[in-house]
Design goal:
This protein is of the alpha/beta class. Helix content is 36%, strand content 16%. An eight-stranded parallel sheet has the order 18-15-12-9-8-21-20-19. A hairpin with a 1-residue loop joins strand 22 and strand 23. The chain starts with a helix and ends in a 9-residue tail after the last strand.
Length: 727
């Protein structure tokens, strides 16, 4: 009982519900380990009692929590934290813009705080709150003032979901780059009336050691989420490239030639995308560019970027410089260098000054090309432009885990508990943030992360958005089944998200697929976070008044409006593969099925047939079943018939690509994150070939203005997004 109370006081769950009506207790060992990672000793009954007493004394003696949230549409004293202040407490708010506001809680208020003069409403920002109690005690807290709701999309819009590495053009160095993204945004905005392009996480990757094994190609396990990966740079678009002379110019051209051969091996010879090989060529070319002196204007811009990014960029570049010398996992470095603030690290930074500058320069160059891509997208008429993707976490040996050690829970990994899809659970190998340290810092790491991602974006997708509420912590060396949930202050996390989205004038999309804790989707909707709805998963599971639903495909007019509606994602089969059942055969061939192949095939075919039958009844499949292209178009007609504010088109679906980009549950068995976009026959396509594809243009007729689709019944219709035009 004491352990349960202690765990609850620190946000550590002692049980969880994998499905409605079912509760599974967390192991005592997992709870104790999670508490230990939070700096709480529960190793013995005596230690547990002492820790609980200390926690209760701390809470009762604190005037304020470390971070207080207020919503800008309500008077400040309505925030719950102020209701705890004793009568006569003097309160001062120091605004981030330099202003101040003060008031005093009235005597005899009995914990009800009257509004200060003018019913103070704070401007959005992170302010400083100071309280002086009548007994002389003082307290300070971070005060996050945020809009209650994140802005909504500007009308109905459609756009593309793209894995950037897979989008190669005639100019790519073996994988898609920011030049390709810029060209795709311009073309799809002008010619296809797209309103956005959502890309995979472009976070900085963990470098592969020279001569060592290849790096992890997954964009969801980066070294750093704070800065983008320079592997995405279009080398020739760096302004200094045209100033290369002599031997440097000759070498750069040789590297371009090697890149062309690498590109041809992927596009024409069936080779996989090799990120490490691409980076080896680009890194050498960028080294040549680093030797070219910056002109006065460029030097001033670079200096401004360094000043703006400050210590965060210095630490980031230092980690990469040290990784060149000691390897890509800081745990294996000399002990003194494992501390980013040690004198030895400062000395190493000075000794490696040129390498630190090189990696800082790469961050600046990548940031500039991202800015160009977003600017081009908006100039092409996109209402939103780029949608960046925020991964759940970072590699434990990478730059962020080194620079922000204080904010990560030692000896813990993020994953997922067992469920109907994975009886063994999942361990993602990502260290979790400590909720207590986040609160103590005013959520500074989270704020900085969001601000960096939203610099050049119209929207942000948050992968596993449930992580704003809770994460499954797994003790190091233990099975994923032996973890437990640790809760975060969802109000504070959402306030920070809303604040940074407001500063950037951006939308937020949450990936909320699968089993989600009750109330989470409702809370996200209240704050303007759009959800994610995949057609094949949208069924009538819950009827009216809590009754059991039919389990049939959810009618279009019953879909939620506040979402991105799509046919598939990077973790799911492309639509062509799902329609044909090829995804079942692929999983069988890789040994991933837990049931008989015939059973799996029959179930998948019945699922598809039920949806296609509905589309036929609605008049969306005029030619009947049997034509793959017609069926894929019909699926997207249905998506347009829903009230969803955004419709996402998986770019490979437009040309009939059948191969998933990622197959969860596999590592070496399948080429995850290494496939170029291909046509229905598996032939890789360049960006230029995509733009000329008859199949793509036939697909996009679905999005022409006036393309009427039936909704739910013959009496109801909905049209495609206004403003779309024929391609």
């Amino acid at each position: 009982m004491t352990l349960s109370r202690l765990a609850a006081a620190h946000g550590v769950a002692t049980s969880y519900s994998p499905s409605p009506g079912r509760t599974v207790p967390a192991s005592e060992a997992a709870v104790i380990a999670a508490l230990a990672a939070l700096g709480v000793d529960a190793s013995t009954p005596e230690a547990t009692r002492a820790a609980l007493a200390a926690r209760e004394a701390h809470l009762s003696g604190s005037l304020l929590p470390p971070t207080v949230v207020v919503w800008t549409d309500a008077p400040v004293p309505e925030a719950p934290a102020f209701a705890r202040l004793a009568p006569g407490t003097r309160v001062r708010v120091e605004l981030e813009n330099g202003g101040t506001a003060t008031w005093e809680t009235p005597p005899g208020s009995d914990a009800t705080v009257a509004s200060p003069p003018g019913a103070l409403r704070l401007p959005p920002g992170v302010h400083r709150l100071v309280a002086l109690g009548p007994d002389g005690r003082t307290a300070q807290a971070h005060l996050v003032a945020a809009p209650r709701r994140i802005k909504a999309p500007p009308g109905r819009t459609h756009g593309f979901l793209v894995q950037l590495y897979s989008l190669l053009s005639r100019h790519s160095w073996g994988m898609g780059d920011l030049g390709d993204l810029t060209e795709f945004a311009a073309w799809s905005g002008y010619s296809l009336d797209a309103g956005f392009v959502q890309v995979n996480p472009l976070h900085a990757a963990v470098p592969s050691p020279p001569g060592g094994p290849g790096g992890d190609p997954s964009p969801y396990r980066p070294s750093s989420r704070r800065f983008p990966d320079p592997v995405h740079l279009r080398v020739e678009d760096v302004p200094e490239y045209v100033r290369l002379r002599g031997a440097a110019r000759e070498r750069a051209e040789e590297l371009r030639g090697a890149a062309g051969r690498l590109r041809a091996s992927v596009l024409r010879e069936g080779e996989l995308i090799d990120r490490d090989a691409v980076w080896a060529l680009k890194r050498e070319a960028l080294e040549l560019l680093h030797d070219v002196p910056l002109g006065p204007g460029r030097r001033a811009a670079y200096s401004a970027f360094l000043a703006e990014q400050g210590t965060a960029l210095e630490d980031h570049a230092t980690w990469y410089a040290l990784a060149e010398a000691y390897g890509p996992d800081w745990h294996s470095w000399p002990a003194a260098l494992r501390d980013p603030a040690s004198p030895e690290t400062a000395r190493a930074r000075r000794e490696l000054m040129d390498r630190v500058d090189f990696h800082s320069r790469l961050a600046w160059l990548t940031d500039a090309q991202l800015a160009t891509a977003q600017r081009t997208a908006r100039e092409a008429g996109m209402a939103i432009g780029l949608v960046h993707d925020l991964a759940v976490g970072v590699h434990p040996g990478g730059a962020d885990a080194w620079a922000q050690q204080r904010h990560f829970a030692p000896g813990m990994s993020v994953g997922a508990p067992p469920d109907a899809f994975n009886a063994r659970g999942q361990d993602w190998g990502l260290p979790p943030w400590r909720p207590d340290r986040l609160a103590e810092s005013g959520y500074a790491p989270f704020r900085a992360l969001l601000r960096g991602l939203l610099r050049h974006a119209g929207a942000l997708r948050v992968d596993h958005v449930m992580g704003l509420f809770r994460l499954w912590w797994i003790p190091e060396g233990r099975d994923p089944t032996e973890g437990t949930y640790v809760h975060y202050d969802a109000e504070a996390m959402l306030a920070v998200l809303a604040l940074e989205a407001h500063r950037a004038d951006a939308l937020v999309i949450g990936e909320d697929l699968g089993t989600v804790e009750p109330g989470v989707r409702e809370t996200l909707r209240e704050h303007g976070v759009l959800g994610t709805s995949v057609l094949w998963f949208e069924r009538d599971w819950a009827g009216a008044d809590g009754a059991e639903g039919t389990g049939r495909p959810l009618p279009a007019d019953a879909w939620r409006a506040d979402c991105v509606a799509t046919a598939t994602t990077h973790d799911l089969p492309p639509t062509a593969a799902r329609l044909s059942g090829e995804h079942v055969r692929l999983r069988y061939d890789l040994g991933l099925l837990t049931r008989d192949l015939a059973v799996e095939r029959a179930e998948a075919a019945a699922d598809v047939h039920e949806w296609l039958a509905l589309l036929g009844r609605l008049g969306m499949l005029p030619g009947g079943m049997g034509c793959e292209e017609d069926e894929i178009r019909a699926v997207h007609r249905f998506l347009l018939a829903t009230p969803a504010r955004m419709v996402g088109i998986w770019l490979p679906d437009t040309v009939g690509d059948r191969r998933p980009q990622n197959l969860p549950g596999t590592r070496d068995q399948y080429p995850n994150w290494r496939l170029p976009i291909a046509d229905a026959a598996g032939r890789p396509l360049t960006l230029e070939e995509l733009a000329a594809s008859p199949r793509l243009h036939a697909f996009m007729t679905v999005f022409r203005p006036g393309a009427v689709t039936a909704v739910g019944s013959a009496e109801t219709t909905r049209t495609a997004p206004p403003g779309a035009h024929p391609v």
